[in-house]
Amino acid sequence: MRGISKRFGAVQALTDVDFEVFPAEIVALVGDNGAGKSTLIKCIAGTHAPDEGTISFEGREVKITTPADATRLGIETVYQDLALCDNLDVVQNMFLGRERLTRIARRFSEIEMECQALDVMAGLHVTTIGSVRQKVAQLSGGQRQSVAISKAVMWNSKVVILDEPTAALGVEQTEQVLALIRRLREQGLGVVVISHNIVELLSVADRIIVLRLGRRVATFNGHEVAPDDVVAAITGARQFTV
Asked: Rounded mean pLDDT of 167-196?
C-alpha cells in the first residue's frame, strides 16, 4: 500500500500511509485507539475504499473495492468477533457459504468437507479440538480462534490478517494461538497481526509498524526492539524512523 489516505466526513482517519507485508513474514500493526489500524485493515480487506493511494499485490497494481476482491486475491481477514456460528459444528463453519455439493443429488458432500477440514487443521498442527463435528458453542476461546484461522487459510490464502487474535484468552490458549501464527509464517503466508499486547507481538513479529493519529510514525525490527521503544512511538514520546 502506498500513500493511502481515508477521510470520513471531517475526520481524517489515514494520511499518506505506506504499508507492506511479504511472504513468510509476520507484521505487527500497532497504535493507540483511533490511530487508524482498523481503517487501514478494512482498506486491505475491501470494506473501505481508500480516497487516495495505490495497492499492489504480487507486483501488480490492484483495486480492492469489496471483500470479494480481497478474497479473490487470497487475502483473508479474521476479525475480533471471529464471525463463527455457535449453532454449527467446526466443518459447517469452515465451509459456510462455500459448501461442497455432490454431483448426483446436489447435496452437501459432508465426507469431502470433513476430510478437507481435518487436512487443513493437521497441516497447522491444530490438536486442541477433539472433533470437527463438535458445535462451536462448546469450544473454548482458543479453540474458536484456531477454527477461524484454519477457515481463513483453507482457500489458498496468501495474506491473513488477524485482529486481536489473543484478546480475552488465558495464558495457555494465548500460547497456542501464537504458535499457530508462527506456523502460518512457516507455510509461506504473509501475516498481519493487530494487538495491544506489545510483549506478545515481540515474541512473533518480524516487523512492527506503528500508526499514530492516522500516520505511520515508526518501523521496528521485531527481533531487536525493546517494548519501551514501541510504547514511546505509540504515545509520541519519541520520534523514530518510519
From this structure: 92
How many domains would you assign to the chain? 1
CATH number at residue 175: 3.40.50.300
Flag whether 174 is in a domain: yes
- The pTM is what? 0.90
CA distances from 226 to 188, 197, 198, 199, 205 (A): 27, 13, 10, 9, 13
Instruction: Tell me whether strands 11-17 and 2-8 are parallel, antiparallel or unpaired.
Output: antiparallel
- Which positions ≥6 away from 173 have C-beta within 8 Å? 140, 141, 142, 143, 145, 166
Q: What's the grid cell of residue 149?
A: 484461522
Residue 92 lies in a domain: no
Contacts of 45 (CB under 8 A, 6+ apart): 64, 67, 70, 75, 77, 161
